[in-house]
Specification:
mainly alpha, Growth Hormone, Chain: A, 2 domains, two-stranded antiparallel sheet, 16 helices, 2 strands
């Protein structure tokens, strides 16, 4: 029997222990994912790789991490697999062990693909679990889930600098313990998921059902455009902020890294608060303010001094990060009953666009200079004007169990 997991009753309790477990697992997963990118210099020196081969490693990692996510979500919408989260983390564990022992470039590609596959399995199903555990507070649940990932993304490069770079390739095997810990946590989550599945199915009538298919397609196109705006701009900060600050203000590397840390801290805060704010005032409003509202700050950023740039990047990070929980939950409500597919699509887009953005902006920086790139990227949030085409989605209609519907 297929469970409809589009929504939970508003009266059910929010399962904060489950949300905490899935957020912690997201932290461990994204720590490993960001570690992959941070150890490129080690493999470049170890195997004498060219930049083109480094790009192939990224392609192998991003191909599985991005493109497989909607496929996994589509499948698990029809065939829920409570323990697939732990199995996915097992792929990551194997990938790390292979990565610590490889002696050839093709083996590096295989290991990168395995780590990416683990991430592809993890994100759609964990987003589903977060919604199941939300108790109706869908934005809050997604924020708690996503802040773990933000923290992990910031932690991975630090661990690479402290452990992998000084101690070499073999030390990567030690990070398999992180994946093992995540597997243990996710087995517990899987048990909860299985028990939750056995409860009566929940049937919700969401506004996504009422919209004509043409409007649904247009709304989805707008959401994808907003995701493009957000993640292309974030790629310019994540990948090149340090270089921009060093070039524009003659800052040393350490000072520039502090600026990046402040930015990442604000991103974590935005991820945590964006969801519950959307629960209170509406997700469309949060999307509108966080994407378009950030434009004045991005437009000013290339023309201010180093001190003010810290404040502006923190505001930008907070506002842009607050958009993603709202966009994801909005999309889930647009397509009730397709939580895995929608989550996989949007997480896949986030991964893919971030990777493409970093590559494209790097090429432009080589051609025109990093400052020019920041001036161009400053206009990306104006794509947020498209939010005017987002319909106001109603709250889901009163929910009934499948058995109650039969009686009626």
């Amino acid at each position: 029997m297929e469970a409809n997991l589009a929504a939970r009753p508003q009266t059910s309790k929010t399962a904060f222990k489950v949300l905490g477990a899935i957020s912690f697992s997201h932290f461990l997963n994204d720590t490993i994912q960001s570690l992959m990118l941070a150890i490129y210099p080690l493999f470049k020196m170890e195997f004498g790789l060219s930049f083109a081969q480094i790009g192939m490693i990224t392609l192998a990692f991003q191909f599985t991490a991005s493109l497989l996510q909607p496929v996994v979500g589509f499948y698990t919408d029809r065939h829920p697999k409570p323990f697939s989260l732990a199995i996915g983390m097992g792929c990551t564990l194997i990938g790390l062990l292979v990565l610590s022992m490889v002696a050839s470039f093709p083996a590096v590609l295989l290991a990168a693909a395995l780590v990416g596959t683990g991430s592809a399995i993890f994100h759609p199903e964990s987003a589903r679990v977060a919604r199941m555990a939300s108790g109706g507070q869908h934005g809050l649940a997604q924020s708690i889930f996503q802040v773990g990932g933000n923290a992990g993304s910031a932690t991975g490069p630090l661990l690479a600098a402290w452990i992998v770079l000084p101690y070499g390739q073999r030390s990567i095997a030690g990070f398999s313990l992180i994946a093992l810990l995540a597997m243990i946590v996710l087995i517990g989550v899987g048990r909860w998921y299985r028990q939750h599945q056995r409860k009566p199915s929940i049937i919700s009538r969401s506004s996504g059902d009422a919209l004509p298919s043409l409007h649904v397609a247009r709304t989805l196109t707008v959401l994808i455009a907003l995701i493009f705006s957000k993640f292309f701009y974030l790629a310019s900060i994540n990948s090149y902020l340090i270089f921009y600050l060093m070039h524009q203000y003659n800052l040393d590397t350490k000072s520039a890294q502090y600026h990046l840390f402040y930015f990442l801290l604000s991103v974590a805060a935005g991820s945590l608060l964006g969801g519950p704010i959307g629960d209170r005032i509406g997700r469309r409003q949060v999307i509108w303010v966080s994407i378009l509202g950030v434009a004045p700050f991005t437009l000013f950023l290339p023309y201010v001094g180093p001190d003010l740039s810290v404040a502006l990047t923190m505001i930008i990070g907070f506002m842009l990060a607050s958009a993603f929980p709202a966009i994801l939950v909005y999309a889930q409500e647009l397509f009730p009953g397709k939580i895995g597919t929608v989550s996989g699509l949007f997480f896949g887009l986030a991964f893919g666009l971030a990777g493409i953005g970093a590559a494209v902006l790097g090429q432009l920086a080589d051609l025109w200079g990093i400052v020019t790139v920041y001036k161009i990227c400053a206009f990306l949030p104006l794509i947020g004007l498209l939010a005017v085409f987002l319909p106001n989605l109603r709250q889901p209609a009163p929910l009934t169990t499948a058995s109650e519907k039969t009686k009626a």
